[in-house]
Amino acid sequence: MKNEKAVVVFSGGQDSTTCLFWALKQFKEVIAVTFNYNQRHSLEIDVAKSITEELGIKHHILDMSLLNQLAPNALTREDIEIEHKDGELPSTFVPGRNLLFLSFATILANQIGAKHIVTGVCETDFSGYPDCRDAFVKSCNVTLNLALDKPFVIHTPLMWINKAETWKLADDLGVLDFIRKKTLTCYNGIIAEGCGECPACRLRKNGLDEFLLEKGVVEK
Ligand SMILES: [Zn+2]
């Protein structure tokens, strides 16, 4: 794959930034695409922008505000609480988001002559999002190849690993500190370690603690 181009679906968070570095190792050229759908914190777009600038990666920001128009949810509206009731999808679920993101990323790939699409979706820390499942991504890949009549390949390097293993992947790629200091995962829009309280921060921190413990690192 060394001679080929890839489009990475990129949000500036831990997972997609790890995927970005993974892609830089696998492909000759990497292009990042960020979707703007009026996320709670427009800071997400700024973070994505500054990371791609720092790495010298071409970055496309696509307007997907129609997603918020169709399905207002806790990621796009301040007045909707972030919550996860038993037996229900979390209020952060945006129906159809990955279907749209993968479709638009593939249309962009087609446009710029890239064969590969990389996304950080993951089934392991599965919070019930149906479009993060492997079966969905594979089915979407088949559909897009039929729709565009080309052999695109959707890569999901994080599909079967947990948060601790995602931190290990960052470490293996030599970018643990970069991911820790420069990415934004927090639902409250606080970069790096985040607010420490929201579900995204808890998941990120638990994974990091587990990874550091396994690695035998004692934090000051
Ligand atoms: Zn947080």
From TrEMBL:
Its cofactor is Zn(2+). GO terms for biological process: tRNA queuosine(34) biosynthetic process. It comes from the Bacteria. Zn(2+) binds at residues 186, 195, 198, 201. One of its GO terms (molecular function) is ATP binding. Catalyzes the ATP-dependent conversion of 7-carboxy-7-deazaguanine (CDG) to 7-cyano-7-deazaguanine (preQ(0)). This is 7-cyano-7-deazaguanine synthase.
